[in-house]
Amino acid sequence: MKLTILGCYAATPRTFTNPSAQVLDINNHKFLIDCGEGTQVELRRNKVKFSRIQHIFISHLHGDHCFGLVGLISTFRLLNRDTDLHIYGPKGIKEIITLQLKLSNSWTNYLLIFHELDSKEPQLLYEDDKVTVETIPLKHRIYTNGFLFREKPGPRKLLINEISRYKIDVSLYNSVKQGKDVVSEDGKLIPNHWVTAPPDPPKSYAYCSDTVYDEGIIEQLKDVSVLYHESTFLEEHLELAFPTKHSTAKQAAAIAKGANAGRLILGHFSTRYGDLNLFKTEAETVYSNVALADDGKIFNL
Amino acid sequence: MKLTILGCYAATPRTFTNPSAQVLDINNHKFLIDCGEGTQVELRRNKVKFSRIQHIFISHLHGDHCFGLVGLISTFRLLNRDTDLHIYGPKGIKEIITLQLKLSNSWTNYLLIFHELDSKEPQLLYEDDKVTVETIPLKHRIYTNGFLFREKPGPRKLLINEISRYKIDVSLYNSVKQGKDVVSEDGKLIPNHWVTAPPDPPKSYAYCSDTVYDEGIIEQLKDVSVLYHESTFLEEHLELAFPTKHSTAKQAAAIAKGANAGRLILGHFSTRYGDLNLFKTEAETVYSNVALADDGKIFNL
């Protein structure tokens, strides 16, 4: 899994900061998560191939998370895209996009498939042989979801030395990787665990933005490998966090700790702060493995 | 008049080129003309004070001319704007904006006044004591208007030496500037033209983008001081210009020449071209006073 942060600031795009958008690479898929104004330019700047994006997940309909979507869809059209595009987002997103395409007489020449969300329970949105994506219902001023990406367990790993020692035919390797016992060329039954090691533990990534501090999400996030949790504010502005339904760095860390996350990435910073290291320091009072998002930063998870 | 080009490229925003947007300064008014994606960032980059923008003119509903509008409106709200904002644009623009404000539950705390256009005849959109703005109906793939800004004639200029020679009381200066004859302190009738010179000829600016080559607009543009005319293509791609309802540099120059424009600014360049000087060279085969728009370029008209 590789995570590219395109934008990690709250509210309004500025000359040197971008609103929310990020690309998660899993096994050749590029999942775009949120799409603030200017995301298509940040995709270019970060050399993300447009054609590789087939699934876009929009957390909620505040502008800093979705105003770049119609432009990206239009640019795909101008570039003669022909592969389908799936958009997952709150009910209403289809009307917003199609109204603009209709009034500009610029229908896409590729298939645009909307998956509108209104459930308050976690929902499985996407599944293939390698990965699942589910919603994380969040509490914000309007209907909002986070997204939880989970790799499926991979095949067992062949122990090359052992497998040649036991003379196992190459044609059987695939079933060995699936965990099956096999018979060697000289007729012996070889238990699978003699010639394989367990697969790497599957990784998972949770995107939680925007949300008020909500311990209700901890159970769903249990043992997540990497948690991106919004921290719009520092504790010194705690009195702003609750009414605007945002979190502080310390609160984000408390969620990471409660969920036993492997790592916490903080983002969605209010543009009022000059020194973002204060977010890291504050979060580290509660939980140790903290990183700061930054526009253009890549995390190899 | 001062014209700041925020973006002058066609179709899709890129790392180093912006879609259509420009600010025309006339007598302390800042008129924003078109608002492609990223315009709010370009306004910041060019240090245009947001609060001074009270009138936004949208030529048509193709994304490269309007996808930045909802973000700008939202940012005005976040900055606690309290002055009215007037938006002039094609019918449908109100629905596009209000749908997004409604679904994000982010109504503006200032007054947003839409002036929706559907006339195919020139219309007076705005008038104050210094300036008028009227539409220039254009021919494009969808309903489109250019905009013609005209200064009103200013007051006559006082000839300071003459006015003191004839001993005219300071309290009369305003009526002298209005062209009235006056009586001097020693009782003589002084004809106005003895103590004043005519005002500077009023300037005018026409924005014509996007449009196919259309001689029908020449009469309305007659003697315009500065004409910004789209030139998406060079003549070598003339076969693309007509079906997409765009113009070439040479065609833009023919309009400038026909209208006896004081100056031609070319813009709305297709991003397929590496060397924009080819546009200038091509236009200069027809008309001599040609300039190229460029993102961030300022023209003192």
Describe what this molecule looks like in 3D.
The structure is a homodimer of 301-residue chains. Chain A is an alpha/beta fold and 301 residues long. Chain A folds into two domains: 2-154 and 200-293, 4-Layer Sandwich (Metallo-beta-lactamase, Chain A); 157-197, no CATH class. Chain A has eleven helices and 18 strands. Chain A has helices at residues 39-45, 63-66, 69-78, 93-103, 160-165, 173-177, 192-195, 218-221, 238-244, 249-258, 277-284, and strands spanning 2-7, 21-26, 29-35, 53-57, 85-90, 112-117, 124-127, 131-138, 144-151, 157-158, 182-183, 189-190, 196-197, 204-208, 226-230, 263-267, 290-292, 298-300. In chain A, the strands form four sheets. A seven-stranded mixed β-sheet of chain A has the order 6-5-4-3-2-1-18. In chain A, strands 7-8-9-14-15-16-17 form a seven-stranded mixed β-sheet, with helices on one face. Chain A has a two-stranded antiparallel sheet with strand order 10-13. In chain A, a hairpin with a 2-residue loop joins strand 2 and strand 3 (29-35). The longest helix of chain A is centred in the first third of the chain and has 11 residues, at 93-103. The relative contact order of chain A is 0.14. The model of chain A has no long low-confidence stretch (mean pLDDT 96). The interface between A and B is medium-sized, with 35 and 35 residues.
Structurally, how many domains make up the residues of chain A? 2
Q: Approximately what portion of the residues of chain A adopt beta-strand conformation?
A: 25-35%
Order of helices and strands of chain A: EEEHEHHEHEEEEEHHEEHEEHEHHEHEE
The name of the CATH topology of the largest domain in chain A is Metallo-beta-lactamase, Chain A
Mean pLDDT of chain A: 96
